[in-house]
Write a structure and sequence with these properties.
With about 475 residues, the chain is α+β, with helices and mostly antiparallel strands. It contains 17 helices and twelve strands. The longest helix has 28 residues.
Amino acid sequence: MSSDYPQGNSVQVAKSKRRSGCTKIIAIIALLTIQSCATYYQANFTFNQEFENGNLPKALSSLQSQSSEASGKKQFLYFVNNGLVLSMLGRYEESNAYFEKAYIFGEDYRINYLNEAASYLTNPTVTSYKGEDHEHLLLLYYKAINYLKLDKTEEALVECRRLNIRLQQLSDRYESSNKYKRDAFANLLMGIIYEKNKEYNDAFIAYKNAYEIYQSDYNNLFQLQTPQQLKEDILRTAYLSGLTDELAHFKTAFNREDYHYEPDEATLIFFWHNGLSPVKAEWGLTFAVARQGNRLQFTNNELGFSFPFSLEGYEEKDKNALANLRIFRVVFPKYVERPTYFSSASLEMDAQTFNLEIIEDVNKIAFKALEERMVLEFSKALIRLAVKKTGEYQVRKEDKVVGSVLGIINSLTEKADTRNWQTLPHTIYYSRVPLREGHNSVKLKLIDREGKVSEHSFNYETQKRQILFHTFSSLESEIPNYGYY
């Protein structure tokens, strides 16, 4: 301490000022933290409620009232939510404008290392949400379907090529075969787009790739079987491509030796979006802290999980003091499923029934994606805990009051990242229905878990060899629990 200041008063005044300032700071931070402690679902409750109730214009209005998010840390979600709602409203061009912004965001995304560093002092929500792998694939699905509904096949082919690039990037990122790194649905969609453009050989290859992924990855990871319709798609495009050997091979593989191609006058490709994808919530674990040599060991005996934190650079007395921090609670993200209300569906036309078959389980893919990086989530959370607590200890050495304030702030700011694209469907189904040239009436039958049937009727006017695309969304879920999310 400088001798220019009388000992006693100067220190007391400094502490008093510091305490007063800290009281104000903690009050402000506490207020801000309480306002921001809700999950992403809760923070957007009005939008979610209107969307889930099917009030799409009100949902869109609620969403767009938060236009500041278009340039914030949740801009990806702002773009894709706008795109999805506008697509459901039939405003396909506007929808694709938002999906394009989301796509560009994904292409241009770069880690902000300053925000990453700040996340270890606060929580991961200070970083920009970059989107999950499957979310980036699904935005291209919606974008392509919008173009197909607008009969803009060339534009849909652009999205097809983008899908192919994204799939290659996903495959290159992971070596293990037990990871979500190949998407069967995306390949199936590519086959549909190629076939729409009469590129039958490319369509056959895409369908064949989808089949192989369903047979291996999707069967093992998600217990999802190959759709029967996909087998028909493979046989049809093999025939139309003149691939005699491949056609013979798949006739045998599918036990369809009697297969004979008969062109339909027109075709309806129908996608059913059933239910809603899972939401992210948070859960906590308590860790005991003990010193082991030159590191702290964070241990949770319940899960048998242990994580080391280096004490390099700390004085011996500080190492011992840090080891006395004892027990802490850390929070992590988790998914909460929203079980579907409807269990199955079919289409009927002229006394013929066409089952809608599941082609993408968004719910299971989301859970798998988080599971695959859970070790990383654990590591980040525990590093965040260690950084906060070691910083708190250093401050406590100088001033116990300020250290206590920092401890409260650390507790208030501990939060998991609960952001995700929550307006996606739980599962996606499809079927192909042969139509006549001219007028057609098709009935959709939805069956709930108690066997009750809900019906919807659609009329289509078609030209010869035309392929029509239709999407239908069932937003119902089993016992939604808004407060829990």
